[in-house]
Design a protein that fits this description.
The chain is α/β, with parallel strands linked by helices. It has helices spanning 13-26, 39-45, 67-75, 97-106, 110-120, 132-137, 146-152, 165-171; strands spanning 34-35, 55-59, 79-83, 124-125. The longest helix has 14 residues, at 13-26.
Length: 185
């Protein structure tokens, strides 16, 4: 049987998750995770899971710290992976004077200071770069002081690089109570 894209509309996320749990049972995969799930979705999902997500990949950087979600995921042993850890074209954190000062104090690049900020929070980072030198430099880690970490909280603007508005409509049906409105495949 061949499925088309229209066959996949409105599949409840828990049906997909249960299929992923079954893959773990077969030994074909070792861990399963989610992407862009906020705390509200995770709170509805976790009680229905046999296997808790191993990871949640979210946009996370000093301008979009998502502190509440970070604490929630850590409490539930869900690892976090940060995409856009350096911000984006319209909010490049490496240009922020605060991180430039930290970089100067630690004799590193602003990007290294920002990436280390996330690592100190226990978050994996996946910075994007096509520049081989920057890729090599981004591996270097510093240890920001507790004061530097504390003061960085003031930078949180809850500013996203990736606009989630298009995703919100898609996620309305995720935990829809009416099975008829969310056909099973």
């Amino acid at each position: 049987m061949k499925f088309t894209a229209s066959d996949l509309d409105n599949v409840p996320i828990m049906d997909t998750w249960r299929a992923m749990e079954a893959l773990v049972d077969t030994g074909k995969v070792r861990a399963i995770g989610v992407s862009n799930f906020n705390q509200s979705i995770l709170e509805k999902m976790i009680p229905q899971c046999r296997i808790i997500p191993a990871v949640n990949q979210i946009e996370l950087n000093p301008y979009n710290q998502q502190t509440r979600l970070v604490k929630f995921c850590k409490h539930h042993n869900i690892a976090l992976t940060a995409y856009c850890p350096l911000g984006g074209a319209n909010n490049s954190i490496i240009e922020d004077t605060y991180f430039k000062r930290i970089a100067e104090a630690h004799m590193c690049t602003p990007a290294q200071a920002v990436l280390s900020w996330n690592l100190m929070r226990g978050v994996a980072v996946i910075p994007k770069s096509t520049n081989p030198l920057r890729l090599k430099l981004n591996i270097h880690r510093i240890t920001p002081t507790s004061d530097e970490m504390r003061l960085s909280a003031k930078l949180d603007k809850q500013e996203r690089t990736c606009d989630p508005a298009s995703d919100i409509k898609e996620l309305e049906w995720v935990f829809h109570e009416d099975i008829a409105a969310c056909p099973l495949i």
